[in-house]
Amino acid sequence: MGSATKPSAMRSIFYQRCPRCRKGNIFRYSIFRGFPKMHERCPVCDLKFEREPGYFLGAMYVSYALGLVTVTIFAALLWWATGWWITTDTIWAVVLFLPLAPTITLFARVLWIYLDQTVDPER
Ligand SMILES: [Zn+2]
Fold this sequence. Notes:
The chain is mostly helical and 123 residues long. It is built from 4 helices and no strands. α2 packs across α3 (86-97) and α2 crosses α4 (101-119). Zinc ion is lined by residues 18, 20-21, 24, 42, 44-45, 47.
């Protein structure tokens, strides 16, 4: 990867990189390996990730949507594989979803930062 070319937004979101420079990490280590703390500012371009108090409240909506989609997919797969009644099916889908909840919560923050920087970029 050359220094002049920016990695794609999809790739940067997946690797949780800063939306402005796409080099600095948003978290101290990958969200796929635990529950890391966020950097306050991008270590490369100094973009402040949490722009104001309560900034990540909006990420809860993203998190909710991601959670709903995940549970729905799990429920559909379980129903397809087992043919269980919808109540049993949904309970097991939620049980399977729970270990993913921290990762989805943090990933929602990444999506929220990207969404916010797309709509209202900080120069
Ligand atoms: Zn940056």
